[in-house]
Design goal:
Blueprint (H helix, E strand, L loop, with lengths): L18 H16 L14 H11 L11 E6 L2 H22 L2 H7 L10 H4 L2 E8 L11 H18 L3 E2 L9 H6 L5 E10 L15 H4 L5
Helix pairs in contact: 2-6
Length: 221
């Protein structure tokens, strides 16, 4: 009796662009990503859903442990659900700022100007809730779930920014309320909440600086 082999290969389609063309593309991408900022003030201007959908397609190309792809992207536009998300998140955030956060943590947050109020959860046209998918009745055992989902979120943010959309990564803690509000099964666990939209007119961001390359790059050999 024969069996179908599990290890099946396909030919790689290499990118054979000239080096100078590759460098030019890299420079353009770097310039694009350098101006990416976390936005907390969103316009109510409608966002074409296909821009969000394509960004999720990009995120879904991310590598994952054993290629299990342990993620789900729940896109929320319903005003009632967004309001419930905001109310529940603000309840947790009130407790965080009042009791849970250490003085050191609150000091680190001061330059960002954040507090327990999260109006962006209602104001942004879309809220993408990225879920980790763990072992369930119809899902394979996942490996390196957080690492895999984290990489996918990076792809997602870059793709949304490339489409001219602003984002914010929000992680209320704990996030148990999300499953109930969004009717998600137990094997899905919230990883991050990403409001998506266009920046509001006159939106401002903290005056922050990124680390120089010398602080983040170590070259050996």
């Amino acid at each position: 009796m024969s069996c179908t082999p599990r290890h099946v290969t396909v030919r790689v389609q290499p990118d054979r662009r000239p080096v100078e063309e590759a460098r030019s593309g890299q420079r353009s991408f770097l310039e694009l990503m350098t101006v990416r900022r976390t936005i907390r003030d969103f316009s109510t201007r409608p966002v074409p859903f296909d821009l969000v959908e394509t960004a999720i397609r990009v995120a879904s190309t991310a590598p994952s442990g054993a290629h299990v792809q342990p993620w789900r992207f729940v896109v929320v536009s319903d005003p009632l659900r967004k309001r419930r998300l905001r109310e529940a998140a603000e309840e947790e955030e009130r407790a965080f700022y009042a009791d849970r956060a250490s003085a050191e943590w609150l000091h680190a947050l001061e330059p960002l100007g954040t507090d327990w109020r999260k109006p962006f959860l209602e104001e942004a046209p879309y809220v993408i809730v990225v879920m980790e998918v763990h072992k369930g009745p119809r899902s394979p055992k996942p490996y390196y779930v957080k690492e895999s989902v984290g990489i996918a979120v990076g792809f997602l943010l870059a793709a949304l920014h490339q489409a001219g959309l602003a984002t914010l990564t929000h992680t209320p803690s704990p996030m148990r309320f999300i499953n109930e509000i969004l009717d998600r099964p137990r094997e899905e666990r919230p990883f991050v909440v990403v409001p998506v939209g266009y920046p509001a007119d006159g939106a401002r961001v903290p005056d922050l600086r990124r680390k120089p390359l010398a602080d983040v790059l170590v070259r050996l050999g």
